[in-house]
Amino acid sequence: MIRFNGVTKTYDAGRPAVDDLTMDIDCGEITVFVGPSGCGKTTSLRMINRMVEPTSGTILLDGQDVSQQKASELRRSMGYVMQSSGLMPHRSVIDNIATVPRLNGVPRTEARARARELLDVVGLASELGRRYPGQLSGGQQQRVGVARALAADPPVLLMDEPFSAVDPVVRAELQEELLRLQRDLAKTIVFVTHDIDEATILGDKVAVFAVGGRLAQFAAPEEILRAPVDDFVAGFVGRDRGFRHLSFQEGRHVTVHPIETIEVEQLGDPTVSVLSPWTLLVDADGRPHGWVPQATRSSITTQAEAVPGGSLYTRGDTLRRALDAALSSPSGLGVTVDDDGRAIGVVRAAEVFDLIESARVDRGRADHNTAV
Ligand SMILES: Nc1ncnc2c1ncn2[C@@H]1O[C@H](COP(=O)(O)OP(=O)(O)OP(=O)(O)O)[C@@H](O)[C@H]1O
After folding, report:
1. Is 362 within the bounds of a domain?
2. Which atom of ligand 1 is nearest to 52's Cα?
């Protein structure tokens, strides 16, 4: 566990960058520091590995005061990933990943072999290992940054806005990847971001910092979205918090209705009759490829002429995903797929709303019972 005990950092004589921070960060979880620019997130993170020294207060790592440990050793014992990936441009990807093990005295061949394994762990093809960082995309560089941080198998990973320099699609992939990795590795991860969406997606716990380095709320993301502790947190969490909160409501009970489908090869075949106003176009494996409206059914002969579909809902995923699938679909029907991506039916927005409403009523009752 990492314990901040009344930690204050004042850089100049002025206002503290971090003000009397007291919090416990649990092992094996992702704790996210989030807040507006300049509120002390990075300073707090860097005090954990002594890149920054506190002005007062103590930080304990598994009960040991970090100020009593050698800063260089402490830093090497924790993985650190930052926004710019921080890779050394004149070293190959493999040698970048092998850096810390080499500093720790691991022989070169062993360190490289481990680095190759890590490429696979972070989802990169092994041939990329021979390239230089400048020959990789931004997203690939960030994956290498994660691999490098994992190379010495540290129990603690410090991540400072690691995904903020990549485009939203790559960013979402990297977030998924980090969650997947964490399911296997169960590291203690402290992750800094200014993006509340990223914080609620990744965090087991989220610490919302206010300007002036004050910890405004520290709780599970669901609680922060449902019950922000003050106006600052409510404002920071933003107008969409009701919608975001749906990410924490499971969609197990959403009804999946059957839907008429037509295979790509059947397009333009006059003998294939279609009755529904919207027919789902699928490939030979049953994967969805858009919609065929009844009105234009006879004129559509290729997949490219079909109406593009919305987001897909994987059965059992959250209510947010179910609702998004329905609302983003041109037919108003959210295409639902199984774990292999095969279409199994559709969900309706109105029915998702009914589930949201009954969950709200149940929660109200539970809160009432707790109160009495
Ligand atoms: N080395 C430094 N010297 C002086 N002041 C600093 C230094 N580093 C940070 N600060 C100040 O401390 C405050 C907190 O900065 P910090 O970088 O920790 O915030 P942050 O929440 O991580 O911000 P951002 O999201 O913009 O990175 C800011 O007012 C910043 O200007």
Report:
1. no
2. 1
